Batch of 2 targets.
Target 1
Amino acid sequence: MTEQIASQLLLCGLHPDNVALVKEILPRTPQIIIPDMAGFENFLESPPDVPIPMVLCGETLGELSPTEMAQTFRMQYSQAKIFYISKKREAFDRALLLKNGFDDAFLMPFDERIVRKKLLELRSMVDAGAEVVFRPVKMIDLKPSAVIDFDVSVYLPTTNRHIKFAASGEPLDEARVERLGKHNVTNMYVDVGDMKKFYKYSAERLVELGKSGSIGETERVERLENSVRLLFTGIFSTSDGESSLQEGRAMLEDCQEIVKSYILADSEKEWYKAISENIGTEGDSYSHHTRVSTFAGMFSIALEKGSPADFATAGLFHDLGLGEIPEELQKKKYEEMTDEEKELWELHPSISVKLLKMKKIPVPLIVYEMIEQHHERFDGSGFPKGITAPKLKVESQILAMADEFDYLTCAEQLKGDSALTPTEAIKKMAASGAFEIELVSKLVKLFPEK
Amino acid sequence: MFSPETHVLVVDDMMTMRKLVSKSLKEIGFANFTEAKDGADAFEKLKAATPPVGMIVSDWNMPNSTGLDLLKRVRSSEQFKSLPFILVTAEAEKAQIIEAVQAGVSNYVVKPFTTDALKAKIEAVYKKVTGS
């Protein structure tokens, strides 16, 4: 009988804190640790003859450059995922690390959530048959008798256990679904290996709810709004502490994937597929443009205005032109800029359009219009032209709201001010008069006050 | 021309890559190596080598003097112009390989490569040189 050789993880020059993180998440996966140059030279002499699905490199082997590490391990383990994980902010250049051979690069502690996710995915692959690794998710629009193609569990805090709520392939029990609604349980749990199925399920539910069919129009709209509201609630978790930020970010990423799945379910959107494949790697998940893209896509789905693909694309590229604006100016608040600086800043929407056209990415005309107009306002107070309806498109206003929403709710965007809750942000936007009240009031319904 | 005694000059600015390439060459059957860290260092070692170098395996992208610089220098030298020269390139450099072909490279291999891939490239050069 042939004995199966267990996969091992290779850690080279990783900071002790990051080694501890790996051990925490992968306690059962054997690890080969190269702590210093002597260990590295031993490795070169006789590399271990075991399957290595992942190599994690760090910054503690000072004499060895990241490029050298990437190239060495790429030669040795051409099929492995090779990541760079560092705590050193000064020398960290993600684009350069990717260019020099890493599959991705992460700066800790900012990217801890993504690193955890990568390791959990590996665990799911490597420890097949071992204990299930659960991810909290928001299961939208659960219908009695619906059949889901993955297991769904609930968590019982009294016993600290996950109990299966629905088994893959079996119809959902009506009484159980009713009990969930009655107890207002919104967090459910899915095996991390089933996340792609979860995204597909969520997108299919949203697509279904977007069509008028066997249920009444009022009920359909209500269920659609409830679904998007639930997803937004997940992003803006109100739990305290660092774990909520991590959980919120996980939910944001889930929403990005759900929006993508929703759009890609429409086979005509081949152009969107080409764009989304070129967006970049997961290290960019939490940047402003990907958040705005996700929010704009979700607003489009919930408000049933325009095409979510158009919104998601416009969100991705709306600030492309900022790359042409001096970095010091980008860090300044608009209100603190001189007149000359404002004039320069106000060019960025048209520069974004120009750059997008130069890239020859075939997007619908409305996407250019949305980007060009994303700083215009309904009351004429925007720029660059100070236009208002009807020249100011509804689609542009929704993108503008997604942009403003991210600006108000995300501390990194506010340049020193405190972030608002989603409800506070929408209220502020409604009170400003800068957005069409009919549109804003529809958004208010997505973020009810507690 | 190629035998276990063939003296191979391995050129790369990275110590680890020199070791890995030498290791692959050992697995193929070669036993005699000299290492150099860039094109300039390689040419000096080429001139001083005893026994004479029989094959060069050089990385493309090196500071100070690249693999392509070394190739051009070798091909314009009366003493070394016929030496088998294999360039090691990255995927991104493949588009420039035409430049190396015009400069007289014997063959090239793209990183990451297996020992079998390197062996196949060397055998192709051997066949070309010996006509068999």
Target 2
Amino acid sequence: MDRGIFSVMILAAGMMFFIGVPGSTSAAQPPDPTEQMRPFVDRIVAILTDPDLQGEEKCIKRREKVMEVASERFDFHEMSKRVLGRTWNTLDKDDQDYFVSLFKRLLEHAYIGKIEDYSEQKVVFRDQRVRGDRAQVDTDIVDQDLVIAVSYIMLLEGDMWKVYDIVVEGVSLVRNYMEQFKEILRKESYASLLKQVEDKVTELEQSIGKPCPVEIRDKADA
Amino acid sequence: MIRRAAFLLVIIFFIPGATVLSQATAVFGRSGGQADFLSDEFYSAEAESELFNDPLEPMNRVMFTFNDRVYIWVMEPVATLYSEVVPWDIRGCINSFFRNLEEPVRFINTLLQGRFSDSVKILERFVINSTLGVYGFADAAGREFGINPVHASMGETLESWGIGDGLYLVIPLYGASTLREITGTVVDSLEMTPYYTWTDDLAVNGAIFAGKKTNDLSLHLGQYEEWKQLLFDPYISFRNAYFQYRRQVRYRPVTDDDFR
């Protein structure tokens, strides 16, 4: 009898242990990257399709909002590190931070420019791949007959997947910038590269001050 | 006559290129597969400039600038005008129509590459789209039957036979390519693509090419400038994008009925 009670107690303790475990393993096991990306993408699409934020005159506000949401998910530090390659390690902390801030401003334009035009778009999550602390989430941006494949390459930081590369139609944005920067670093210098990035960012930000580019694609007649 | 001249040109180009090609095979030969973005090697790999042969860079850059100007001054204004006259869905249909006519070329290339399951898919698409899709104006196979487009070209066939890219080339009025790819394209279009073999008249073929290009472009207006304004060295960026994009288009999981 005592034995029975004892074993029941052990069983109960065991059950409690196992019930407790899912909570602790879910902390140890990586969260699902697609499940994390879905609300993020939804929020961006919601901003882009928000009737209050339509039209050219609202474009600055719309972009600001998208940037705000995007910067929560993007790891610009990780991106900058990759984009500079070996040069990254030759920079001191302040220089690294400065580059990150510049590159962040550049990337915001690149990403927003890519997604902004597709106002009637739908994002379809196709697939995901997780390996260790890395993950790839494949999406399709579907806009009428156009389908654009966009993959997000992510690193697990704490319990949050953070994007460090965007792959559009198989073309890695980070790799593409890396090649360009490498060429500049090879022919010129880091100072010259920095100057070029500064100029580009200024140019892009000024173009935002002006009315945003008119949408050329004619959806009305479709 | 023109076709023969073009072939001659290909051969003249091809033979001196052959030595370069064989050397390059080791580097470029079907090594790729899909790029593994989760691996740090993808980002730390040697610069593509060191991997891809671009000895003609100065000339290519001139061509790149030429194409860029032609695009901005001629092609885009024409395509914009065209897009204002011809509605979006009709342009989509024209695109499908040309694509359907190219299916036999893809069919032959999949056979040459031993991708028989893809050959069947292409054949199905061609039959369905030519009939239910009304001469290929609609992609019924893709929409109704879920048979998605398959990519195959002579460039890819040559690649599967172990021939390397050779040199990177920017072709006037055509764009990024390599010695092997443009050779493949010439063979594909002049020997096998129906709408180029209908006539030997260069002017007519030129018009077909221009029309097709304009229609194609009208579906992607504004994207080029938008992308270019974010770049530091458009030439390098487009060269890199060309190789990255091609790698992704050509990757497919090998199935059992492919022998390779």
